[in-house]
Backbone:
């Protein structure tokens, strides 16, 4: 399963990239606003920090303007993945861009039928928002299972990118279902490394090692 980080904070991205476990980055207009930086400038910097796909979102709602925005975004770097919303104009744009060799992430997916449409439009990634479904009393992970089943039924190559991840259980369930990618905030990714018994085990081993009076080097 690929791990993307969902942020426009370049310090976090650089720090997580150093682990060697980061496969890409997703941003959205809210995350750009939170960064306080210029959109095109921050996307360019992110693209230099990771080799994998960096999702940058078009903000126009009509197909013609989305195509113009996509041209600007694609010009930033080869690893830009244009993000478009799951609307008729968004999917028209998706089909045109992927037919032209661009990577496209179709965002704001909340139903399996929407995911089916995105796959038919040739999306590189479909982003179902599990956290926002859960927030509204719905079952985000059930949507991931449904999309996996549908995509496998028809051998769609669109990758399921689990988005709006709120906690490590979302990551665990996504991996069990066989989602291709998950994108999570930096804090959620960092929390995956931790276990209280790992910390306790290290403390015990180091304590006993010191009592041996030995050194490896
Ligand atoms: C994904 O690409 C989105 O940027 C993101 O996962 C949205 O998450 P949120 O629901 O926490 O805003």
Residues:
């Amino acid at each position: 399963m690929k791990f993307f980080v969902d942020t426009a904070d370049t310090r976090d991205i650089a720090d997580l990239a150093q682990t060697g476990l980061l496969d890409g980055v997703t941003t959205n207009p809210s995350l750009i606003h939170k960064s306080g930086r210029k959109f095109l400038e921050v996307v360019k910097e992110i693209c230099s920090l990771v080799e994998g796909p960096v999702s940058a979102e078009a903000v126009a709602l009509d197909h013609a303007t989305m195509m113009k925005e996509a041209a600007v975004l694609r010009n930033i770097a080869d690893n830009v993945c244009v993000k478009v919303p799951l609307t008729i104009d968004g999917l028209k744009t998706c089909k045109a861009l992927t037919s032209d060799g661009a990577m496209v992430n179709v965002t704001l997916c909340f139903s399996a039928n929407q995911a089916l449409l995105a796959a038919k439009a040739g999306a590189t990634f479909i982003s179902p928002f599990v956290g926002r479904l859960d927030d509204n009393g719905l079952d985000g992970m059930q949507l991931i299972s449904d999309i996996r089943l549908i995509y496998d039924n028809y051998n769609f190559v669109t990758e399921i990118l689990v988005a709006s991840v709120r906690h490590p259980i979302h990551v665990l369930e996504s991996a069990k279902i066989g989602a291709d990618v998950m994108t999570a905030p930096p804090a959620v990714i960092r929390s995956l490394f931790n276990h209280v018994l790992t910390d306790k085990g290290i403390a015990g081993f180091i304590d006993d090692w010191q009592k041996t009076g030995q050194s490896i080097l």
Observations:
- DSSP finds eleven helices and eight strands in the chain.
